[in-house]
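Sequence and structure are kept together here, with a separate record for every protein. A complete record is shown below as an example:
=====
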Amino acid sequence: MAYLILGAIVAIAVYLLIHHFNKLKVKTDIDEIRRTWGQPKSESFHFVTISRYADVVKQKFHRLTDQTIEDIDFHRLFTFIDRTTSKVGQQFLFKKVVEPTDLREDPSEKFVQLFAKDKELREEVQVDLLRLSKPDAYYISSLLYDRFFVQEPKWLNLVPIDIVIVTCLLVLSFLFPGLLIILIFPMTLNMFLHYLNKSNTLQFTRSIPQLNLLINISKRLLNKKSEFFYDQSVADSISQLKSFQRKASFIKFENEDLVQAELGQIGTYFMEILKSFFLIEVVMFFKVMQELKDKQQAIVTLFNYVGNIDASISVASLRAGELKTCQPLLTSAKKEIVVKNIYHPLIKNCVQNNLTIRNKSVLITGSNMSGKSTFLRTLTINSILAQTIHTCFADEYISPVVKQFSSIRIDDSVFEGKSYYFQEVTTMASLLEAIDLPHQNLFVLDEVFKGTNTVERISAAKAILSYLNKNDNLVVVSTHDIELADMLKGEYDLHHFTETIEDDTLHFDHTIKPGQVTTSNAIRILELSNYPTAIIKEARQISTALRTAKEISER
């Protein structure tokens, strides 16, 4: 009796100790969640794995081109806006941001508002999501690639016969012990097949246990008190995957080192022998593979459910940060964009700008370093964020739903043997293909064909910019070619950036202004840079002569 009491005391003590450590861990997790709220992550980002879900499950409306991703430093931008807790949420958010939608209202906004207001609920959800924060969770998305599934071997059809033979020999051996000698042969074969199959299970060491976690966390979230969490399609998907969980429980998805540790444990070793004799793990493995292939849509549903909740928390955290944000107003199709105090989130103390685009597109002139390229990136980034996370870095952002295309940063492809001009031609051709499709586009361009001579550049640029401006498409383009301003004045409103020289020092205000630039400081900048006097003098003489000739030709 005393031993029973002592055993009960020990069991209770162990339970209380485990409970205490669990509470302590939750408290530590919540402290960390609170510390990082509203802050960018400090961890490293591995975009090959982060982008995996976006690569396999693609959205129908629009996906940013590689050129646009390069133009706006997309990976740096994502590193800043990502405040997700789980790897599932991070992969979902990446897909969300790289694929702007055509929805004028964001269905996720209800979650964003909920988490912004209910801190206790949000932290409770984040603690749940932390269970999917290990890098292994990235590999759930690999289960959506058909090529990762192991092909069922032809000999699997003979397994039922094998099991019947082994069972019969084992039962009859109690009456005829001599049969044990015959039993050695099928048992040896079965053990060989069992351990041969370990190489198959190793491929899913990361993904399948994490999928099991995803299912369990989906159950927890579905049962939250708020009505926003319940989703019938999620409940149905969880139900569909019950058989997967049941079958997967028969399989040890672990690496070879863990298998060796397993063999050192008597109880587990006995189960391993039992599974190998009757090929339980082999049969269940291929049943699990078939289950996963048949239930991929259910996996996607759960992935999107959990990922969307995590991404919504991320957006709430972003809005709670130090930088000013607004929610965009997305309108029906029309040739109009209005932005107030818009700025680039990755530039510290970035100058804010206002711009109204109405009925015409926009041509921007100005010298180098005046702010043209930064403004183009700012507009593109905010247009993308407006149609993905419904959050802009501005006081006001009004725009129709568009597909974003850009050509801002083009480099020579030396190793591909392509010239700068040919790269421009290729990039521009991809933009022209979008013109006649039934949707509005936003084309953001930094110079057009600067890789060729002046006459042909201006001629081609004028023709292309007029073509891009068709069908209510919106074009925002910067140029050094003043001649384009006169050629396009019926189709494009003119804006400019400018600089001033004060006390022999160059000053940029980085503010966009309406109208055409009226000053030219290029030669003066050469003078401030201590170029030889002879160069400055000749440059001014040539400049005066060219302007005089232009004025005479225009009379």
In short: Residues 520-555 form one domain.
